[in-house]
């Protein structure tokens, strides 16, 4: 059956000579996999650029709950990203976000709140001009609310680290900044140095590891640390 839905491209892998299998987080069906034939040829109906990570799409898809792999009937780019692909800080953050989403988006069901949080976050990053350096920290906290394990205050993180033996200090200054980030908007200015920003990132990622199975390490982390200094 055909359905209209919005989607956010997560990633794709080559399939056979000319096709791809693409993971897309959809408004109606959660995370789904689609096979797209002929996209890696000059004569393909749809271009490979439409399947780049975090591309925002309008889709018409064939969906069958009994299948793990679906097909796309029609698609178009909803809102072309004008800065994320070209501005080094934004592209670095987007690579980090994409890897984070690929590890944590598991549900194959509709979640309108989560979908539009991600959709608007991507659009916000694309148009932001100032205070980009803390975007990933604020995103991690906001996203944890959507996933259902966010702390109400920083003290909860410190307690959980102690309980589960996470050897990262969460001292008073760390708690103060975490509490600030929990109430911050993406465009808010929160002054901090590179070393402390990376410390907060370590705290938040280890908090994710406590609540997300098989979270593991992020390959994009080293570049993010360097660029967002």
Structure keywords:
229 residues; alpha+beta; OB fold (Dihydrolipoamide Acetyltransferase, E2P); de novo design (two linked rop proteins); 2 domains; five-stranded mixed beta barrel; 5 strands; globular
Count of individual beta strands: 5
Rg result: 19 Å
CATH fold-level topology of the largest domain: de novo design (two linked rop proteins)
Q: Class of the largest domain in CATH?
A: Mainly Alpha
Number of helices: 7
Tell me which CATH architecture of the largest domain applies here: Up-down Bundle
Could you explain the architecture of this structure?
The model has no long low-confidence stretch (mean pLDDT 93). The chain has helices spanning 88-104, 112-127, 135-147, 154-164, 172-182, 194-211, 221-227, and strands at residues 2-15, 19-26, 30-36, 56-62, 69-77. The chain has 7 helices and 5 strands, in the order E-E-E-E-E-H-H-H-H-H-H-H. The protein has a 5-stranded mixed beta barrel with strand order 1-2-3-5-4. By secondary structure, it is an alpha+beta fold. Helix 1 (88-104) runs antiparallel to helix 7 (221-227) and helix 3 runs parallel beside helix 6 (194-211). It has 2 domains: 2-77, OB fold (Dihydrolipoamide Acetyltransferase, E2P) (Beta Barrel); 88-227, de novo design (two linked rop proteins), CATH 1.20.1440. It is globular and about 60 Å long.
Outline the secondary-structure elements.
Blueprint: E1 2-15, E2 19-26, E3 30-36, E4 56-62, E5 69-77, H1 88-104, H2 112-127, H3 135-147, H4 154-164, H5 172-182, H6 194-211, H7 221-227
Parallel strand pairs: 3-5
Antiparallel strand pairs: 1-2, 1-4, 2-3, 4-5
Helix pairs in contact: 1-7, 2-3, 3-6
